[in-house]
Write a structure and sequence with these properties.
globular, 13% strand, single chain, 2 helices, 3 strands, three-stranded antiparallel β-sheet, alpha+beta, 19% helix
């Protein structure tokens, strides 16, 4: 579980059921919104994204689409560093 800032205004992940099932089946859901215990719940989904999805991998593993902002969680001075690992994973 990671703590990352979100700043999506009214944006959210929306997809039809068939394509959502494909993403899940292909293990391309990268992040989901969850509560402090790691449970994916409606209450933990701040924007109503389908399946509480916060990030997905593209058809190739070199592309990811994220709603959270890992770049805003990289400096200890800012109080969060979980973004460092996310960004390193794509280096």
């Amino acid at each position: 579980m990671l703590t990352l800032p979100i700043a999506h205004g009214e944006g959210r992940f929306e997809i039809d059921d068939e394509r959502y099932d494909d993403l899940v089946g292909e293990d391309r859901v990268l992040f989901r919104y969850c509560d402090a215990d790691g449970a994916v719940t409606d209450e933990a989904n701040p924007n109503g994204s389908t399946g509480a999805v916060a990030g997905v991998l593209g058809e190739r593993d070199s592309v990811a689409v994220l709603m959270p902002h890992p770049e805003r969680a990289t400096l200890p001075e800012l109080g969060l560093t979980d973004g460092q690992g996310v960004l390193r994973a794509f280096a």
